[in-house]
Design goal:
The structure is a homodimer of 245-residue chains.
Chain A: E1 3-7, H1 12-23, E2 28-32, H2 43-48, E3 56-59, E4 62-65, H3 67-77, H4 90-120, H5 130-151, H6 167-177, H7 184-191, H8 195-207, H9 211-244
Parallel strand pairs in A: 1-2
Antiparallel strand pairs in A: 1-3, 3-4
Helix pairs in contact in A: 1-3, 1-6, 1-9, 4-5, 4-6
Protein name (chains A, B): glutathione transferase
Family (chains A, B): Belongs to the GST superfamily. Theta family.
Keywords (chains A, B): Detoxification, Transferase
Chain lengths: 245, 245
């Protein structure tokens, strides 16, 4: 039975798992779980993942959720996945685990909370909260600084000085890509100070081409939609300003 | 060269690593990093862990931080650690990874944020924030419910139906133990609805005895200190109330 990946490409951990499968030639079936329609909370889906989150994989009778656990499982179980994704060497593996653990309470928390409170909240039934966004931006920016000064220290193209990407590169870069839905001025303000991070994102895109862009396409379309909405809202506020003058 | 564990026993991930080492007879040297004195932010410590957090291990020339990564490393590298802590079986291992990943954004975030905003904040130079505590309590309580209905489903003594503990049991139980510093009425209100969780905490204590209590002793002492402060503050507010009557 083919591996099933339950995912929504608007979710960054979903994208990481999908790109990993495609890059490594893993034969799988993608099953769309539409978060904007709350499908992850349906009783049918909760039979697969009682936490009501994406992604989840079903491999035969084995169900697994949490994207890092999934990436590690796929790297270890599927034959032919190159060693650099999750090295057998225990020291290199331990350092990748360290990045992945750090990610949860730092980059992920900052980035996710910022984007939800700046743009994506209403699509998920949440209100935008500028104060929460401001707090999250601090954590996001300090996390990007840490990535640059700690994980990207040295001359490697990837985290931990790697010449090829690991699952940590994929997970963290997919998280940062979520910033695409922001207004450009916000995204540029946040990323501009971090030149090494920008180069690393580019390196990860290239190393996972063409699947990186293919899987992110839905995000690029969302970016265009949000940008259009912003232009309309500015233009209508301009009109109302004029009409008051 | 002996393994060094840089830790503060008031930190729950530090305690998990220390208990793991002791239970498994790993020969190590504990190096106290006093968080209340900001020692984790000193330039010397940042040479070891640039993120300025505890715990960190130094094993020969190898430095590692993030407690889950450390526990996995120790379980894989040190001979004689029983398999149940982090099974070689890829399916069981994957499910333990899933619990550990879930922990970060759920139980840990809820519990840590609650305790910091209810009690421990001032010791770390932060102010108490009742609104943040109230928000955190929701996440904490829903996480305890999920542990009970998902991870403790069935009749196992430990998470995932285990008959013996894994590193996930140790990590999550050490987190919940942080609630000891709360006023008893708050701790009881939070834990009372979760009978299976209470039994599982007890099972984990017994399975790691006598080291569990030994390593938690500093927390029990802190609990007594905070309780004394509360009594004093109530008694003086009672006096001032009386004097106003």
């Amino acid at each position: 039975m083919k591996l099933k990946v339950y995912a929504d490409r608007m979710s960054q951990p979903s994208r990481a798992v999908l790109i990993f499968c495609k890059v490594n030639g893993i034969d799988f079936q993608e099953v769309k779980v539409d978060i904007s329609k709350r499908q992850q909370l349906s009783p049918e889906y909760k039979e697969i993942n009682p936490m009501g989150q994406v992604p989840t994989i079903v491999d035969g009778r084995f169900k697994l959720f949490e994207s890092h656990a999934i990436l590690i499982y796929l790297a270890c179980v599927f034959p032919g996945v190159p060693d650099h994704w999750y090295p057998a060497d225990l020291f290199r593996r331990a350092r990748i685990n360290s990045v992945l653990d750090w990610h949860h309470s730092n980059l992920r928390r900052g980035c996710f909370t910022y984007v939800i409170n700046m743009v994506l909240g209403p699509a998920l039934g949440l209100r935008l909260d500028p104060q929460a966004a401001a707090e999250a931006e601090k954590l996001l920016s300090s996390s990007l600084s840490k990535i640059e000064s700690v994980w990207l220290k040295g001359n490697g193209k990837f985290l931990l000085g790697g010449l090829q990407p690991s699952i940590a590169d994929l997970s963290l870069v997919c998280e940062i890509m979520q910033l695409e839905v922001l207004d450009d001025k916000d995204r540029v303000r946040i990323l501009a100070p971090h030149k090494k991070v920008q180069q690393w994102i580019e390196n990860t895109k290239i190393a996972t081409s063409p699947y990186f862009d293919e899987v992110h396409n839905v995000l690029f379309k969302a970016k265009a939609r949000y940008q259009e909405q912003r232009l309309k809202s500015w233009s209508s506020s301009g009109t109302s300003l004029k009409s008051k003058m």
